Amino acid sequence: MKITDKEYISRCIQLGKNGLGYTAPNPMVGSVIVHNNTIIGEGYTSAYGGNHAEVNAIQSVQNKNLLKQATLYVTLEPCSHHGKTPPCADLILKHQIPRVVIGILDPHEKVAGKGIEKLKTAGCKVTVGVLEQECRALHKRFLCFQEKRRPYIILKWAETLDGFIAPDTSKRNEKPEPFWITNPHSRQLVHKWRSEEQAILVGTTTVLKDNPKLNTRNWKGKNPIRIVLDRDLKIKGDFHVLDENIKTIVITSIRNKGYTTNGIIYEAIDFTKNSAEQICDVLYKHQITSIIIEGGAKTLQTFIDANIWDEARVFKSTVIFNSGVKAPVLNGKLLHSKKIMNDTLNTYRND
Predict the structure, then answer these.
(1) Which residues are catalytic?
(2) Fewer CB within 10 Å: N-end or C-end of the chain?
(3) Rounded distance, CA 177 to CA 166, Å?
(4) CA separation (Å) from 15 to 26, 30, 53, 280, 347?
(5) Residue 275: in which H helix or E strand, if any?
(6) pLDDT tens figures, 289-301
(7) Is the pTM for the entire model greater than 0.90?
(8) pLDDT tens digits for 28-74?
């Protein structure tokens, strides 16, 4: 039975997912090389600065002579420019691979069809647009960054059964520490999510009341870059976000230019004008392709009101507060809902 191009691109998508959390700001591409209906090589993008998927796939082929009669499948157009690594299109031509099947075009200004043009000019047969929607879903972070010039934004919060995101001040402990709404399984899942995205963002109130570490201590994976909104630089002293253990960017209204002190990067914006857009500009400047916004309620609602978000992950617990800080309100398409012990996780998409 002959396997179709769609099935091989589907395998490329599977491979590409292995790069989640490590390739950014590069896309997590997957690639497969086929000879006589048999896969002879596979690869996916290495951690940032390392090989691209096509390079790893070609290197995995034991008999390089077979490449001259093979087809290379890849989820995203091969690059045609020198970056951290040489152009993948040149490597494909060097090995005289006669056919290339591509999921989607690369919108990056240095690629944008140039890779395909280079391959076709050299006589390579190129097919584009196989499982296009599925490939766009795989590359949603990279595509959002390139097309909208901002990171892919994931809103995340937990709310009580009666719709509160935080308790009244009277219910909090004297020491600033998190007041948990969800169960340990849900909290571990959040740490997994943190390892998959480039950055995490919280507001001043969240830091002052909860003193979060914003790391992945409950999951094996890299820590996200910490983004802290601190308009008036109220966060001082020994708060975890200032411990210099993780790259941290503080967005403030103080000063007009970015500067670094004590290992913390400071970026200034005007909080009285479109703060969500300005925050995205700062994130774009620092090449952050995806971010989880964890709160608090005011920060989350700022992005919701500006309609600058792509996905929302909302936990609903069985805890009841009766009073406190109301959870954000959003309009989005419910993608799916699932139970995590006594919590319910609802995932929404901004259409």
Answers:
(1) 54
(2) N
(3) 12
(4) 15, 5, 9, 30, 24
(5) helix 275-285
(6) 999 999 889 999 9
(7) yes
(8) 999 999 999 999 999 999 998 899 999 999 999 999 999 999 999 99
